[in-house]
Amino acid sequence: MAILTIKDLTVKIAGKRVLNGVNLEVPEGETHVLLGPNGSGKTSLIMSILGFPSCRIISGKIKFNGTDITTMPIDKRTKLGIGVAFQNPPPIRGVKMGDVLRHLAKGEVDEIKLAGTTNIPVDFFNRDLNLGFSGGELKRSEVLQVLAQRPSFAIFDEPDSGVDVENLEVIGKAINEFLKGRSGLLITHLGHILRYVKADVAHVMFYGTVACSGEPTRILNQIMKQGYKWCERCPKVRRLR
Amino acid sequence: MVRTMPKGKKTALKAMRKPAAFGPDLNLAGFRRKARPWPACPISALPKEVTQKALEAGVKADEKGRAGMYFQVDYSVVLQTIRKTFEGKVDVMSTPEALEKYGWVKDYWWKIVDVSTDKYTALAELKWDKGVFIRVRKGQKVTLPLQACFFISKDGLNQNVHNLIVAEPHSEVQLITGCTTHRGVQSGLHVGVSEFYVGEGAKLTFTMVHNWAPNFDARPRAAALLEKDATFVSNYVCLRPVKSLQMYPVAYCRGANSRVSFNTILYGAKNSYLDVGSKVVLQGKGSRGEVIARAIASDNAQINARGLLVGEHEDSRAHLECRGLLLSDEAAIHAIPELLGKVEGTELSHEAAVGKIAEEQIQYLMARGFSESEAESLIIRGFMDVGIFGLPDALRDEIKRMIETTVVRAL
Ligand SMILES: Nc1ncnc2c1ncn2[C@@H]1O[C@H](COP(=O)(O)OP(=O)(O)O)[C@@H](O)[C@H]1O
Ligand SMILES: [Mg+2]
To answer: Which residues span the domain enclosing A206?
Structure first.
């Protein structure tokens, strides 16, 4: 059975059509990769899956574990088992990272141990969430929060962007370990994280829709070699323009 | 025979019609000047409704954990005590008593607060209703806080206190002051003149909590003078509705390496009008100032959060940080930070931000499994994070608790 099913999803943000008939299905237990150039709508898709009110659904459906969640509030979706490591998390002054982690861990997992696996020093627990975090720290902190939350379906939005080699390895290994026996969606612009994370299917987004899907290594190798220009020559993508 | 009036009284009389620089002008005739005297008694003998309200303003009813205490109800001093271990090290008494007892006290009286500032200072001179005198002797470190409470028991009453706090060289003390009213009190006017003298190398931490009533007016007038290496920390907390509150205390960092910090937490609810600021005047070499303010306005509240940093010495530095959070469309917060550099080399800076809770912050926290209201409380609690004030643990926890019971619960 599919854990996530998206049917003909069209979404506007601030009056602009950012998703245009997206179809996507992630079967239970699989990890899919979402590739695509900047601005193709990857983050918008994630925000729509989560139910951010800024994403106005024009048409289509989102189903999670068979339940229609298209109009569900964010926190309800979270409770059903969706977790996201955000690409650009907002700083929140005075809200301590440790408090959020403890809320997510519910005493069922050891957040201090998890912090170790994501290379987050424990003194970060007393810091204001995302305030003054470096690029790498932001990514690691997002991954740590998803690890503490333990969603059945985990989404990682560009966890590898702007991250140095050491951080990439830490993040990649943590995500890979976490996704064993779970389902996930991994967004990556350049595919660096795939050095560490095993994925089952790759999708490429273009102009707000999923233009093609296939075997991750094959698609990635082409993109690596020729960039997204390779995709632009694809008749399917040209038709979208 | 022509009777001459003391100079202070004459000046005061002239200022009786002078409105304050800020805040709504009050008709002083609209308040009562008669209250029945309260007999002196141990705190345990005070009515429960008095001690309960005092406790909410940070004043403990048992003397445990406090070095000494002063309790004034209306115009009567109900209690002034000092713990045995601190006898001879600290004085706690009413100001009229202190003026009588020590000849030198008059040298500190109306010296840094000008009696002709406005009609409220004038009123405090002409209709003076006692106040607390605290003197910590040279080199004495008072390890437990002292506390003072100003209580108004009668509706419509006007209470004008004049306090004097002297921290002698190299002494250290923490003073907690709670000002509040009986629950039957709707309106009234409290004027509080406070003069703080922080001697060389001394450290004075002053925390004032105001819990007034929705139709009550308050006009505190305070100034502090800091000698060489002195530290003055002033914390002000006002979380309950008040009709109008206007204050703009000033600290003169006269001595070299003197340090002042003003921390202010305001929660304006209902129709509250708060006009609160802090002034720092840097006069000594190496003097430093810090002003931090957090203001939340809900319902129809209006808050003016002021700040003024004056640099008069080339080697001086101060920073002002003011953040305001609006919880309703009808509420308004006006942050008014001002910097006045009088010499080259002084470093003055400020940051101010006023806005509503960012939707994206709420949504982000909801994506972490918090409900919408949990997310809001978390953000507001975080906004009022007193951890940054560097307070003693017990005091920090107490203020946290006040924020929890008034602000967070009100959501
Ligand atoms: N709040 C917004 N207001 C206006 N346009 C937006 C907003 N959010 C996203 N967009 C637009 O939607 C498109 C897709 O953006 P995004 O989903 O972030 O792309 P990606 O994650 O693939 O880089 C872009 O053209 C972007 O400018
Ligand atoms: Mg993106």
So the answer is: 2-238
